[in-house]
Specification:
- With about 350 residues, the chain is of the alpha/beta class.
- It folds into 2 domains: about 180 residues, Rossmann fold, CATH 3.40.50; about 130 residues, Glycogen Phosphorylase B (Rossmann fold, 3-Layer(aba) Sandwich).
- Helices cover about 40% and strands about 15% of the residues.
- The protein contains 13 helices and 12 strands.
- Strands 3-2-1-4-5-6-7 form a 7-stranded parallel sheet, sandwiched between helices. Strands 9-8-10-11-12 form a 5-stranded parallel sheet, covered by helices on one side.
- Helix 1 links the parallel strand 1 and strand 2.
- Helix 1 runs parallel beside helix 2 and helix 3 packs parallel to helix 4.
């Protein structure tokens, strides 16, 4: 089978890294396309994953997003016209589902935040199969046209699957010159260029930065900006801003706590047993709501509530078998073939 994987954001690289390897071990050929956004290309290069770079992010405005999507979708369409693919899979790509549908390729869409309405209304209807964590109830997705049997809810966090195969890089602390005598804080700014976050207040995050800066004598902060504007602003705040893509899980494992105004890095921290705080100002998703209810993630409204202390190092919580996700992804192609065969038999039997 020839499988097309589309990586459009840096977390997607980590998600698909073990899945690509396991699909190839089963004898499938995997082709990866990428988008120049955040650390996506840098991480693919760091991990030695061959990829075809196509398109870039369109910025925070609707016009820019639409233009970028149209241009990139055209590039991808030319690729699939020239080559044969049996299956396509992506996590939150807005380009692949449409291109795959037009080319007649079964497509698997994955996501773990249910309130990105514009994306899900489109992708949910175009996809052959939709995979989400079981924390998201089916009733929350019905308005997007996503229902069983198309919808499949898998147990746990996606981070518990991909971290099972690829443990954190222990060399990140030395790579960044971290001072292990200080409290190491990993900081991730809000996703200001995403549609579901535009207009939401970033006041809490700004106050977090102020608070951490005031504790510089005992706290060392590593910031992972999403866009160049964030990078430029944080460089002047006395924090470490890596000049190249770093192993995110390795950085989290080397830290004492994580403060991320987005989901993936907080959930990586939860999976690795590292304290995590979320000042995310958008609508709270079901996955994070469950983690907060379980006490594994903390909702941050007051920067003074952050416990700036060295954590006790312990083994990470149990992980999950990535083969489950591989089976669910590859099963979409079998489901499509079975559906075509049933329709063919029905026609022939008339």
């Amino acid at each position: 089978m020839r499988v097309w994987v589309d990586c459009t954001n840096s977390p997607h690289v980590l998600i698909f890294r073990p899945l690509i390897r396991r699909m190839e071990e089963r004898g499938h050929e995997v082709v990866v396309t990428s988008r120049d956004f955040a650390q996506t290309v840098g991480l693919l290069d760091r991990y030695g994953i061959p990829h075809r770079e196509m398109g870039a992010h369109g910025g925070g405005g609707l016009r820019g997003k639409a233009q970028a999507m149209g241009s990139r979708s055209a590039q991808l369409a030319r690729m699939v016209r020239a080559e044969h693919f049996d299956l396509a899979v992506a996590h939150g790509s807005t380009d692949q589902p449409l291109v795959a549908r037009l080319a007649g390729i079964p497509q698997v869409t994955m996501f773990d935040y249910e309130f990105a309405a514009a994306m899900h209304h489109s992708n949910g209807r175009l996809a052959t199969r939709v995979l989400v964590p079981d924390a998201i109830p089916e009733r929350a997705l019905a308005r997007y046209g996503i229902r069983s049997p198309k919808l499949i809810r898998y147990p746990g966090l996606k981070e518990e699957y991909y971290l099972a195969d690829d443990p954190p890089d222990p060399g990140v602390a030395g790579e960044l010159g971290l001072d292990e005598q200080k409290v190491i804080v990993v900081l991730r700014p809000p996703p200001e260029v995403t549609l579901y976050h535009r207009g939401a207040s970033t006041d809490v995050f700004a106050r977090v930065v102020d608070h951490l800066e005031s504790q510089a004598d005992r706290v060392q902060v590593v910031a992972l900006p999403r866009i160049d504007e964030q990078r430029d602003a944080l460089r002047g705040r006395g924090v470490i801003v890596p000049e190249h893509a770093v192993d995110g899980p390795g950085l989290i494992a080397a830290s004492d706590l994580v403060i991320s105004a987005g989901g993936t890095m907080n959930r990586e921290a939860v999976a690795l047993g590292v304290p995590a705080y979320s000042p995310f100002a958008g609508r709270l998703g079901a996955v994070d709501a469950r983690l907060i209810e379980e006490g594994r993630l903390h909702r941050l409204e007051d920067p003074q509530a952050v416990a700036l202390v060295k954590r006790e190092r312990a083994s990470a919580p149990p992980m999950r078998d990535p083969d489950l996700l591989v089976d669910l992804i590859l099963g979409a192609a079998a489901t499509r073939r079975a559906g075509i065969l049933r329709r063919s038999n029905t026609v022939d039997g008339r």
